[in-house]
Design brief:
By secondary structure, the chain is of the alpha+beta class. It is about 20% helix and about 35% strand. The strands form ten sheets. An eight-stranded mixed sheet has the order 19-18-20-21-29-28-27-24. The chain has a five-stranded parallel sheet with strand order 7-3-8-9-38. Strand 18, helix 7 and strand 19 form a beta-alpha-beta unit.
């Protein structure tokens, strides 16, 4: 670092004239005063002091400053930042053969004006900028540093703000930035904020825009919503969505391949799908698995005529096929219509083994007339724990129905064994008697004790999904969000609902009443919550059986089938001899918070109350995350440790649960839904780069003219020196010296008797 320093004055003609006049007038007065004193030595010293003060004031009037200039000895730095995100793999850059200079990359938007010999990716079109040979002409004056950005997680996001905002800190003596990108960003602050900081530092940005600003003709498989679990021998519905930017209608033969690793394509299914021009189509393929195991489902769309992008026509998703037999217990008092149709739906499901218990008033004994019925409520915890889900209809602790011990056992299998419990109240109001039992703690709603019979209306009312309900797999009656909302809007309504005041804290409201409301808001009708290791659902109406009107079992069977599997999924997620892991939601979206519950049992069979429980998660990219679980609370939930995770990558995640105290480990996996934020095939955004270049007083360079960057950088002037100024005219020490001289002058005059 070279330093140049010196004293500088910032005078004006008026300040200079005033200073000279002040000094001359003061010198004349000093001479006259000294002569009148007979040239006495003491008088002479006082007058000399007066003259020094006048000279100091005259100098200060011209604003003297001590200026130091710092010039770095090292070369200025040129930072070449190139986008390494996934969108740069989009092949929309036309390559034109040039007989003199070889292939030239042009924007795909210009392909109508040139004869293209092919297309290359955006990353390939800027490959010259990433090579050191390209920057050799600048090595004499500059130090060139080439660096990619948006590499972590690999290709999953793009942040233009961070590399620009931190450039001055990471590169010493930064003179300019070369930014090569398609302008597409989806994380971080707006890049213009970073550009403003570079402008204040006099660092121009030379932006190289790559890619087409209009989407190319393409047929994209935009989504594959495959379930994570299937049942052996039962058709699995695999929905998918195709989006088209082709200017014509096309008929695509979609292929579904299922492989379990033993054979590349164990099962192959095909379906013809018609896609409108510039439109989309949501369809599905039914696949009936023949064997048990972990499968990978791959859906392919063939490349169409005129399609320029063929790397987004396929998607894969994992699915686990099980030989499922979920045991369900349905308890009811009076066989109302809701009970009858629910019983039929569950008994006809091949993956469900149903047991019914009927406390019908007036009968000499409980039970029923066929094999589905049992004669009494399970006598102990071992017998009750065999059930994955329990439906409680319009029953309570009234005579001849449940006992307080039965309620305690039900709470136990939900809290510690991850069973599901569904409350289905009825117009008899028997469930009000459960308020004083252990089941009241599980119930996700607060009941109105003043109206135990509920509310009836002559006009049918409708359920309205909440924001959570629109995203929940439990209330998904159609394959797309828009179709699902439309289905719920046309479902037949209900004419009775339970006496619900509000949802309890920590519960999730999936559906509310169309009109009815109280001081807490609209009446919640479908409410869920997690209690310990299990799940609880409250269904506040008994009109779901009406959903069969005009469509038979299409929505009714699907809803209750989803309820059973949703309630029992945590119980069968991942379990070992003494450990169990459950997570919610079971198939989270990318960036969605996921709750984790781990149940650990000691060798004696008692739930572990305190211990060091951790979960190691390996993402598809190889990134590792270790979570620590919080121990059970003092209020209960013995053996259930809790934690949470926020997955940032889509795909299968491998997880290993371990406990230091017991030495047990449990391996499992879960799948995160959603496409990466940074995708292939999206249009470039050159306007973003143009604004960055304009704000920093740089320039926007087309990808076919990247040689212009060398000329622009070579023409950059030397960077201005860093200057540090010490303003003497207002410095406290100078002011103190002036005040001291004035005090000394006044003291001298007083001693001579002139004051």
């Amino acid at each position: 670092m070279m330093t140049l320093s010196g004293l500088r004055f910032f005078e004006t003609p008026w300040s200079l004239a005033l200073s000279v006049g002040l000094v001359l007038v003061t010198a004349s007065l000093c001479w006259i005063g000294w002569r009148r004193s007979g040239y006495a030595a003491e008088y002479g010293l006082v007058e000399v002091l007066r003259l020094l003060i006048a000279i100091l004031v005259g100098v200060l009037l011209n604003q003297p400053e001590w200026v130091e200039e710092f010039r770095p000895k090292e070369k200025p730095t040129i930072a070449v930042l190139w986008d390494a995100s996934k969108s740069m793999d989009t092949r929309d850059v036309a390559v034109v053969e040039n007989s003199l200079d070889g292939p030239v990359a042009l924007s795909a938007a210009s392909e109508n004006n040139v004869a293209a010999s092919g297309f290359q990716s955006r990353r390939e079109s800027i490959s010259r900028l990433t090579q050191s040979e390209f920057w050799k002409p600048l090595e004499e004056r500059f130090r060139v540093v080439v660096e990619p950005f948006s590499l972590s997680p690999p290709g999953d996001s793009s942040d233009l703000y961070a590399p620009l905002a931190t450039a001055r800190e990471r590169f010493s003596n930064l003179r300019s930035v070369v930014l090569a990108s398609d302008g597409d960003f989806n994380e971080g602050l707006p890049p213009l904020q970073a550009a403003q900081g570079l402008r204040l530092a006099n660092v121009p940005v030379m932006a190289v825009a790559v890619g087409s600003s209009t989407r190319l003709p393409d047929l994209e498989l935009s989504s594959l919503d495959c379930p994570t679990v299937g049942v052996l021998g039962k058709p699995v519905r695999v929905p998918f969505t195709i989006r088209s930017s082709l200017p014509r209608e096309c008929l695509a033969t979609v292929t579904l391949r299922a492989s379990d690793g033993s054979a590349p394509d164990k099962e192959v299914l095909r379906k013809d799908v018609r896609v409108l021009p510039l439109g989309s189509a949501t369809e599905w393929i039914y696949w009936t698995p023949r064997t048990v195991g972990n499968f990978t489902v791959t859906v392919d769309v063939p490349v169409q005529q005129g399609e320029l992008l063929d790397d987004n026509n396929s998607r894969t998703a994992p699915i686990s096929i099980r030989e499922e037999k979920l045991r369900v217990l349905l308890v009811e008092s009076k066989p109302r219509w809701e009970y009858r149709y629910l019983r039929n739906a569950l008994s006809r499901d091949p993956g469900i083994e149903l047991s019914c218990l009927l406390f019908q008033p007036g009968l000499s004994k409980v039970g029923g007339g066929n094999k589905d019925y049992i004669q009494k409520f399970p006598a102990d915890l071992k017998e009750l724990s065999e059930f994955d889900v329990v439906f409680l209809g319009d029953v309570g602790t009234v005579d001849g129905q449940l006992t307080p011990e039965d309620c305690r056992l039900l709470k136990g299998i939900v809290e510690f064994q991850a069973s599901g419990l569904v409350f289905m109240p009825g117009f008899l109001g028997n469930q009000m008697s459960l308020v004083d039992t252990p089941l009241d703690e599980l119930c996700p709603v607060v009941l109105d004790s003043l109206h135990p019979e509920g509310s009836s209306t002559s006009v049918a009312a409708r359920m309205v999904l909440t924001e959570l309900g629109n995203r929940s797999l439990l209330t998904k009656l159609a394959d797309s969000t828009a179709e699902n909302i439309a289905v719920w809007e046309i479902l037949p309504g209900f004419q009775w609902y339970a006496p619900v005041l509000k949802a309890k804290a920590g519960s999730e409201v999936l559906a509310v009443h169309q009109d009815a409301a109280n001081q807490y808001g609209r009446i919640p009708l479908v409410v869920t919550r997690t209690f310990g290791a299990g799940k609880v659902l409250y269904m506040a109406t008994d009109g779901a059986w009406r959903w069969r009107k005009g469509v038979e079992d299409k929505y009714h069977y699907r809803f209750w089938g989803q309820v059973v599997r949703w309630m029992a999924y945590r119980r069968n997620m991942a379990k070992g001899e003494r450990m169990r892991l459950a997570f919610s939601p079971e198939q989270p979206q990318r960036g969605q918070s996921m709750a984790l519950d781990a149940q650990v049992t000691e060798a004696s069979g008692e739930p572990l109350q305190r211990g060091d429980v951790s979960l190691r998660i390996v993402a598809p990219s190889g990134a590792v995350e270790t979570l620590r679980f919080a121990p059970p609370t003092d209020e209960g939930e013995g053996g259930v440790f809790s934690s949470s995770s926020l997955p940032q990558e889509s795909g299968r995640h491998e997880a290993t649960l371990s406990c230091k105290q017991t030495g047990d480990t449990l391996g499992t996996s879960f799948f995160v839904q959603g496409t990466p934020v940074e995708g292939i095939g999206r249009a470039a955004r050159p306007e973003v780069l143009a604004e960055i270049a304009q704000v920093t007083r740089g320039s926007l360079v087309a990808q076919e003219n990247i040689e212009m960057i060398l000329k622009s950088l070579s023409a950059l002037p030397e960077p201005p020196a860093s200057v540090r100024r010490l303003q003497l005219w207002c410095h406290p020490i100078v002011v103190a010296v002036l005040v001291g001289l004035l005090g000394l002058f006044w003291t001298g005059r007083k001693r001579l008797g002139l004051v």
